[in-house]
Amino acid sequence: MMLAKHKGWIYVDRVQQGTGPSLEDRYALDEGRQFLTGNQALIRVLIEQMRADRTAGLRTRAFVTGYPGSPLGSIDLALQQAKKHLDAYGITHLPAQNEEFAASSLMGTQMLDEHPHPDVDGVVGYWYGKGPGLDRAGDALKHGNFAGTSQHGAVVLLSGEDHEAKSSTVPYQQEFAFEHHGIPVLYPANIQEFLDMGLHAAALSRFSGCWVALKLVGALCDGGEVVRVHRNGIPVETPELQISGNPFSKVANHRFFPVVNVETERKLYEERHAAVLAYGRANALNKIVAIGPHDRIGILSAGKSWADTLQALEDLGIKEGPSAAGIRLGK
User: Are 99 and 159 in contact (CB under 8 A)?
Assistant: First the structure.
């Protein structure tokens, strides 16, 4: 097997060996270029997160639970099909009876600071569901986010979005529900960002103590793309953050009693959210993509809407760069 570079990409040259590509490459390929559907990319996130943790010397496990619904309607089947790859990295998939039970069980994965395990340093938990299920799970999600994550743990919420209600009882836009629970949201614009933002979501949760959501739209979950996969995750910058003159440090707290719970809420909104913003700045999760000295219009977009914005500008004949037309773009 040979590694080759082309236009910044690293890919595995199997043709020279005569072996040809394999469907197993979706999860077995260490690094290079690979075609993945949206759901396959999310499973790849689990594997790459465990690889990255092992490289960092952490004895972590992953726990995946949820209730399927379009656009994540087939993720449970995809997880079952990938079982041998998941087992190899200590990843457990346990479907739940509903989204609320799933979220409640994830809270238990983040209690290792209070109840240590001799063989496990932390658990990265993953919840999957969609809009109406997010409403149902609200109480568990809010309590879980208030309680936080363990020192080496994290929680990532894979939340399907069905704006047009193609396969849902009602149209849904989930950011408002997550905002109510104090949960930060990352919004991938393509399947490559399913991978990259999925890894950032776990790192952000581990740093800040917040549960972190990924907003996943149907056009991407059901679509496919050639993406770059990673051997040991992605580069992550851990910011240095001071809170009232002291270094920021998250503390998981599952005691929901009077006085204690008020302080927990203060730390969430005043300290942990500050940590979220610091991580976002350090890792350029929000950025100016096109800028010029004579910009007169600014367009700020995210996720699939970002890709739609670029397509709209091209349809309008603005192909030489938005800044040349006086347009500044923020992603």
Answer: no
Question: What domains does the chain contain, in order, with CATH numbers?
Answer: 26-229 (3.40.50.970), 288-330 (no CATH)
Answer left, alpha or beta for residue 7, where phi above 0 means left and psi between -120 and 50 means alpha: left
> End-to-end CA distance of the chain, in Å?
38
DSSP character for 320?
S
User: Residue 182 in contact with residue 138, Cβ under 8 Å?
Assistant: no
Per-residue pLDDT tens for 293-303? 989 999 999 99
pLDDT per position as a tens digit, 249-268: 999 999 999 989 999 999 99
Residue 19 pLDDT grade (very low, low, confident, very high; cuts 50, 70, 90): low
Cβ atoms 285, 193 nearer than 8 A: no
Sequential DSSP letters for 215-233: EEEHHHHS-EEEEEE-SS-
3-state secondary structure of 78: helix
